[in-house]
Structure formats: C-alpha cells, structure tokens
Amino acid sequence: MFTTELLRQLDKITGQYEQKQAALLPVLHAVQEKEGLISPESEQDVSRYLGVPVVHVHEAVSFYHLFHQTKKGKCHFSVCQTTSCALLGGEDIIGHIKDRLGIKPGETTPDGKFSLSVVECLGACELAPMMQCNKEYRGFLNKKKINELIDQNK
Amino acid sequence: MEKVLTRNFGLENSHRLATYLKNKGYEAARKALTQMTPAQVIEEIKKSNLRGLGGAGFPTGMKWGFIPQANPKPKYLVVNGDEGEPGTFKDKYIFERDPHALLEGIIVTCYAIASHKAYVYVRGEYVKSMQTLQAAIDEANSSGYLGKGIMGTTFDLDVVVHPGAGAYICGEETALLESLEGKKGFPRLRPPFPAVVGLFGCPTVINNVETLACVGPIIANGGGWFAKLGSPKNGGNRLFCVSGHVNKPGVYELPNGTTLRAIIYEHAGGVPNGRKLKAVIPGGISAPVLTADEIDVKMDFDSLKSIGSMAGSGGIIVMDDTTDMVWAAMVAARFFAHESCGQCSPCREGSGWVYNNLKKLYHGGARPHDLANLPGIIGNIGGNTICAFGDAVTMSVGSYVLKFREEFENKIKERVCRI
C-alpha cells in the first residue's frame, strides 16, 4: 500500500492531467523512486489508484525500459552503445566494466553495489563515449574514469 | 552571423527568468497577445518558412492552421522533447540553457491555436532538463507569464512537464500521444490526424522543442526576417548537433543551407588525427548515410531530400576512414531492432532479421545468400508499417549496403571470424 506521503505526491501529479490514467508514467516514476523497482504489488496498487486494469500497468512497466522489475545496484551504469559512442570506443568501455565487475549487461553484482545496462542513444553524443550513472550523465569515458568510479563506490 | 536559438546560451544564469527578461524576454508573447489576432500569428509563422525541426520538416504555420477552430473540444499543444534520434542532443541545450525561450514559444503557439493547456513530453533520462524546465515554469507562473490572465490579458495557459520512460518510438508523434495518455507507445493509424483527433481525442498540435524556440524571435522580428536567414522554403537557423569522428563535437547554430563540409571542417574542427572522412549521417541515424564525396550538399530539408537523404533532426554523425561500414550498418540495425515497438510485423521481425544478418556478415560465418537476401528484407519493411520507423530502417540500413556494397561483399570473401 502507498504511504500517505506518497499518496499526496501522486494526487499532486494526477491533478495536472485531464484524465487520471494519463499520469501512469509519472506515477510509476514516483513509485520506483521510492521503492527502487516496480513490484507486482506496486502494479496492483497503481492499478487500483488510477482505476485501470493491472495488465495495463504491467504492459507499461514491461514496455518502457526505465522501469525496473528487479532492484538495481546502488550504482547503475547505463552505457550507450549507439553509433556516436560506438565510434569512439563505447564497446571497449562496456567490455571494461564487464571485466572489472564480473557481470554481464542486465546483471547486478552479488553485493548489490553495481548494475550494468547497455542502452541505446541517451541524447548526449557530444560527450561520447558516455553513460548514465544512476541519473547523472558522464561523458568522455575511458578506462581510468571507469576505474575511479568503481573504486569510489565499492 | 545573427544568433537566434543560442542568443542567451552564453549568459550567466541563462535559465532564470530575470536573465531572460533583461534580454527582451516575453516581449514577443506580449506583442502576440496584445497586438495580434491568432490568425495574424499563424500568417507570420507561415511567412517565416519555419519547418518542423524534430525531423519531418513539415511547415509549422500550416500545421497550426489545420486545427479546426469550430470544433468545441479543448485544443492542446504537445511539445515533443523526447529527443531520442541518435546523433541529436539540441533540445537538451534549450531545456537547460534557455527554457523561457521555449515557454515563450509555447505561449504564442497556444494563443494562435486557442489552446489553454500544453504538455511538454521530455525523455525520461533528461532529469536535469525536466528540473530546469519545471523551475522555469514555476518562475513564470508566479510572475504572471503563465497561469490565469497572462501578462494582464484574458488568456490562460497551464504548462505541464511529462516524463517519458525510455522508448525511442515515443518521439513519433502519435506514439507520444499514446504514451501521454498513459499507454504503451504504439503509433496510431492516420487519418485521423492529431490536428483533428489528438490528445484525449481533441485537436492537438505537436511541435518539437527547437521549432517552438524559434517562434518568439519570429514574432518579435517578423516572418520575413526569419525566412531570409535560411534557405528558400526553409527559413531560419537551426541547431546542428555534430558528433563522432570530429575534433570539436557539439551544438552549432547555423543558417539552414550551410554546407555539410563547412559544418564539419570550419565549425566542428574537422576529422581528428589527420584521418580522412569516409561517411556522414546528416540528420540522425534514420537519415541515409552520405559518402565523403557528397558533403558539399546544403543542409536544408529540400537539398538533402534531392540527394536521397534527409535533414531529419539535425544530428550529424561523422565517420573517418578507419570505420568498417558493415560494422556501422550493424550498429544502426541493432538500434532499430532494439527500438522497434513491435506493433507491425514487418518492422518487429524485419529489423531483427536485418540485425542478425549484419551480425553474421560482420562477425564472420555469413554465406553469400545472407548478403543476397539483405536488400529484400530491408526493402520489405518500409512502406508496410503504421509509422515512419519502418521507412527509417529501410532507408538508413539500406543506404550502407547500397553505397558501400564492396565492403559487404568483401566480408563474404574474407570469411574472417571476429567473434
């Protein structure tokens, strides 16, 4: 069940829309921000809250890749693999993170500290090769920068 | 050259209302609201030859004119800030460095189409953009530039920021509407067009962020002034995003019609390490790739179309002579296979087949029929789908095979395994 505080936040969000169900994406963002993932229980809660079938909520959760059905590590690397980043060594960056952390894209380290995702263009090709570390954009990546980031968050 | 879109970018606190007001901010909106009729505003935009800078290049004034004013339903403006086209990163700069220029364009546009509600759909990853824009909206609301009775007039307008959640297809305008209504982003069949049946079934204009950022300056200085800045039928400057193998990647504001050669060599510093240019994507990954011999083309919608490519979203990706074009085609195909929404079979299945074929060609293990089949698979996606994504797969990936055929054939001959 949603806390009173979260409910208040959700009411504020849905109040901006002509139709309550239109707020599905921002509502899911708010729930994930609080809980770190969208669990089947949360899907039920959101379904009840917005008055839409639970399958409708699940459909959105599985369609949009920013929503997670499993918890991500404290430090979540989303590394771009699209053209501009790939031209400037994006694949080596992904390879280096895999080696350093011993995980494949889509996985989380057993200690729950790091997750790796390989993603398509994040709209920051001027910083290539780049990635998102949680919500923050980091560009002009090289092995040294990756090592520093991993060591800082260990 | 006169800066239009980036005029405030270099100012300290350029995202704040006070800075914007010091530099003639909101005077264009005041002029439109107090001295012009909606029809006059639309006429001025038509005169400016402003075209949709999200990628389609549709004349903006004409789009606004399609809104049926006799329709009693509410009208909406939806701002497309989903910015997902690989190679494109300009809207982010407008959100973060001059959000009030966008808001001023929104006010004028809503006035022209008699809308009192605008939604700005921002891609979910652009967290900083959303925060900056929301702060600008809050400032504008509390200072009377948004909300009830804007600037002492009787015109009301609310602007809502809506976060996307990581789906390229939501940059397609009807998928964006679906997403904004709280559904998965599946493009809609047209007709009906959004101008008649759009958001919540109501008449809706969907414009790109950069397009709207042009609107204030057009109203302030006149449509004729803007038209003169660019090419015939493609007025104004635009933000060219340059990335890949160049010395100075970044956003460059230049007149429409600037040559691609000038953008790469004079502005973006040329190709690094003394290497030679091999290929350029001129307008985001969906645009057919150009060879080094084609870069004297003028960068505007009509000139690029005339040589079989497109100006698209202004995302220029530069590739030097070390680039393996089969690899580049594979990377593009991987993007399309990953981002196909899955609604139409030719695109859902086809984009995956194309990617698999190219993977085999690049990594080794391809047989002659894998290359022979490729044009057929690629050619059967475009034109057979609900939205233009399928056409993008056909045009984009098809152009690599067409223009660099020899490299593809060599892969079959070499039969080298790169796994």
Protein model, in words:
The complex is a heterodimer of chains A (154) and B (419). Chain A has 154 residues and is an alpha+beta fold. Chain A has two domains: 4-63, Orthogonal Bundle (Arc Repressor Mutant, subunit A); 75-153, 3-Layer(aba) Sandwich (Glutaredoxin), CATH 3.40.30. In chain A, 47% of the residues lie in helices and 12% in strands. Chain A contains seven helices and four strands; from the N terminus they run ααααβααβββα. Chain A has helices at residues 4-14, 24-35, 40-50, 54-63, 83-87, 90-101, 143-153, and strands at 75-80, 114-119, 131-133, 136-138. In chain A, α1 (4-14) packs antiparallel against α2 (24-35), α3 (40-50) packs across α4 and α6 (90-101) runs parallel beside α7. Chain A is elongated and about 50 Å long. By secondary structure, chain B is an alpha/beta fold. Chain B folds into three domains: 17-229, Rossmann fold (3-Layer(aba) Sandwich); 238-320, Ubiquitin-like (UB roll) (Roll); 325-414, de novo design (two linked rop proteins). In chain B, the strands form two sheets. Chain B has a five-stranded mixed beta sheet, with helices on one face. Chain B has a four-stranded parallel beta sheet with strand order 3-2-1-4, sandwiched between helices. In chain B, α5 (90-97) packs across α6 (99-113), α14 (345-363) runs antiparallel to α15 (368-379) and α14 packs parallel to α16 (389-403). In chain B, 58% of the residues are buried. The mean pLDDT of chain B is 96. Classes of the chains: A alpha+beta (154), B alpha/beta (419). Chains A and B meet through α2, α4 and α5 of A and β3, β5, β9 and α13 of B.
